Amino acid sequence: MQVTETLNEGLKHEFKISVPASDLDAKAGAKLVDLKDKVRLNGFRPGKVPVAHLKKIYGRSVMAETIDQTIRDTNTEIFTERGFRLAGEPKITMPTEKDEVEELLSGKTDLNYTVAIEVVPQIALADFKSFSVEKPVVDVSDADVDDAIKRIAEGSRPYNAKAEGAKAEKGDRVTISFKGTINGEAFEGGTGEGIQVLIGAGQFIPGFEEQLIGIGTNETRTLKVPFPKNYLNEKLAGQPAEFETTATLIEAPGETTIDDEFAKTLGLESLDKLKEAARERLTAEFAGATRQKVKRALLDRLDESHKFEAPPSLVEEEFKLMWNSIKAEMDSSGKTFADENTTEEAAKEEYHKIADRRVRLGLVLSEIGEKNKITVTDDEVSRAVIERARQMPGREKEVWDYYRSNAQALAQLRAPIYEDKVVDFVLELATVTEKKVTKEELFKDEDGEKTAA
Q1: Nearest by Cα to 293 from 137, 131, 449
Q2: Would you call 350 helix, strand, or coil by DSSP?
Q3: DSSP label at 16?
Q4: pLDDT tens figures, 109-156
Q5: Which DSSP state fits 226?
């Protein structure tokens, strides 16, 4: 066998390989001998079929198998000797001319092919004990608990019918019946009976709720509202519609008394128990936000400490996944790059940088995990599946069966568990210092905007 490296540029390599026909013939012959004891042919006793006869019948298929196995074994040997870790599947170029293929399958010519690969670079891991990470911490205050309960109460507030002759105002709940038309023609889904509308909640298409302000009980109005251009129903998107609307009931929001009785309506014994539950939920919410901040800080530190060329094919694959998602989201919302104060070219450049960072961090985390024997157990994956199932009451078995029969879906569950375990491993070595911050600071993203309430 002769191996010649024809390309060595960065992470890209290409080899030209030649395997003598005699080697292929010997391997194919061994396969035919092994086959002799397995096949059954009319006119021959078991195990007594001449190899020459087998070669006439199975020679081409056996040679094809031999060539395929030889290529795989040879490539593995080449990559292992050089310590290569492949970034993707090798690209193999074989003879394609009919005569060349025929001579190769007939064992009359050497096997000549090329293999092109892209490799993962060698990664020198940083000293994680030198890392310093700041951990933002927020204590749940009594005011936070009170605010949370007030939000619950607002969502549970009662509504009472307004006095005869009263008109609807912003914040009122109006029960309506309506018939919608476009260019005088009724359309599917354009009618409704006994529909409750909370004026100002933004639950209906823009402009609908505002035109109900001032309407009285049993009053009929024609509301003129265009459907948004990005409306999910493409037949209605952008169309000017008219809704003949009658208000059958107008209710004003009442006040909810936050006391033991209110807590009982939520299934809790008392107001104190409600406060305990609210504090627990807020504590978990703050802890989750803290975890995300610490993880982001650590990933930034890993990014700064490991600068190397990421395999271009992996970066491009990651970019395409992100870009397709971004384009689909923009098409759905009707937004343009100009709306985001950028251009398509500038956005592509930015997402290429993000893709490059993701790939490099993924390789670093993988290297850390591999060198420190970090693994994800089947029990950990099973717990993740159970948690997913719990999020879909009544469909638990469906969720469980989906993951049991879908290896790719299981891999998608395993990946974040693995990442978190590697992150925890590094954090144990790093110096983590706590810093008291405000709730507003904790829930601000990197651009200074709130990421959660």
Answers
A1: 137
A2: helix
A3: E
A4: 999 999 999 999 999 999 999 999 999 999 999 999 999 999 999 888
A5: E
